[in-house]
Write a structure and sequence with these properties.
By secondary structure, the chain is α+β, with helices and mostly antiparallel strands. The protein is built from 6 helices and 12 strands. The strands form 3 sheets. An 8-stranded antiparallel beta sheet has the order 1-2-5-6-9-10-11-12, covered by helices on one side. The chain has a two-stranded antiparallel ribbon with strand order 3-4. A two-stranded antiparallel sheet has the order 7-8. The longest helix has 18 residues. The two termini are 27 Å apart.
Length: 246
């Protein structure tokens, strides 16, 4: 069973093998809708918008919001400040919410007994078990200079894959140590991690580091990365090749 919906401003796809329980998949999409209603900075009625407008103090926010703020602060400390949800006088937790939401959605499926599935939100993926051919799930890394092309195909299971880049959304990641400085020397950085939450938060931070980001991923135990710079040159961590099919 495979279903795609447009939510949170992006396509979200859920595929589950061995189940035709449409109510289960709908519960996953309902969860994503709740996430969007709470965390979208584009909706005036969202909780994060209320915080940014001064109508709600962060310490009085929902448990989910306080948890995201705590995870963001932990990531800021772990990345020497390269991950930071505070910019231009506002909070924008998008860099951590998407990965957290995908991981939580995968948790819904696991608790329902699903062993073989993937959840893809805007190209960031959590995969478990195998595909309908009994093999690891296939994930493509797009060519940032021509998104119709795939430059690498990965085989993954029991892990998450996240890509941070500027080739679709434009400049939206900045160096927090040099306010206002966009990242121009690299265009794409893909991270494979133990789950999508971990892969996503560190992909965002590593991209903000520019060329040094791939070195940060290299030193991070349990993670691998693939970076493409503005000149089209690819750099990968030493263990990334074990995921590559082509």
């Amino acid at each position: 069973m495979k279903t795609t919906c447009i939510l949170m401003g992006m396509p979200i796809t859920v595929e589950v093998l061995g189940s035709d329980d449409e109510t289960l998949v709908e519960s996953v999409f309902a969860f994503f809708r709740q996430v969007d209603e709470r965390f979208s900075t584009y909706k005036e009625t969202s909780e994060i918008s209320a915080i940014n407008a001064g109508r709600l103090r962060p310490e009085d926010a929902s448990p989910e919001m306080r948890a995201i703020f705590a995870m963001a602060e932990q990531t800021r400390r772990e990345t020497d400040g390269y991950f930071n949800i505070w910019r231009d006088g506002r909070y924008d937790p998008a860099g951590i919410v998407k990965g957290w939401a995908i991981a939580a959605a995968a948790g819904i499926l696991r608790r329902a007994g699903c062993a073989h599935f993937y959840v893809d939100a805007g190209g960031d993926i959590e995969a478990a078990g195998h595909n309908d051919e009994g093999e690891p799930w296939r994930v493509g890394i797009r060519n940032p200079f021509d998104i119709r092309q795939i430059v690498k195909v990965l085989a993954i299971s029991g892990c998450g894959v996240a890509t941070s880049g500027t080739y679709i959304r434009g400049q939206h990641v900045y160096d927090p140590h040099a306010p206002g400085r966009p990242i121009k020397e690299i265009v794409s950085l893909t991270v494979v991690g133990p789950n999508i939450y971990e892969a996503d938060r560190f992909a965002t931070a590593a991209f903000a580091m520019g060329r040094r980001g791939i070195l940060f991923i290299e030193r991070l135990a349990g993670f691998e990365g693939y970076m493409i710079d503005a000149g089209g040159q690819a750099t990968l961590t030493t263990g990334f090749g074990r995921y590559v099919l082509s």
